[in-house]
Write a structure and sequence with these properties.
With 86 residues, the protein is mostly helical. It is 67% helix and 0% strand.
Length: 86
């Protein structure tokens, strides 16, 4: 991908693309049925997005993903963190 493209995304979102790519790489072989793995990913996404995730919201996200109701990707978790009423 074009480095300029990533720089534009970083400017608009404030999210470091190296962090996002590192997270994406770590997800490739992760066990999404494992609660500890899912919690770790949620914490990492929250850190990258500079958002605080209350325990009850984290529990809801974990339960949703571990049960198979939601896929585990940056976009899904980010939406759940930004729109906790869903």
């Amino acid at each position: 991908m074009d480095n300029h493209f990533f720089k534009n995304i970083e400017k608009k979102t404030g999210v470091n693309m190296k962090d996002v790519l590192s997270l994406a790489n770590s997800l490739q072989n992760a066990n999404f049925k494992d609660e500890n793995t899912v919690r770790s990913v949620i914490k990492r996404v929250a850190q990258i997005a500079n958002k605080r995730v209350p325990k009850d919201l984290e529990d809801k996200i974990v339960n949703s993903i571990v049960s198979g109701n939601e896929s585990l990707d940056f976009n899904t978790i980010s939406k759940m963190i930004n729109n906790p009423k869903k």
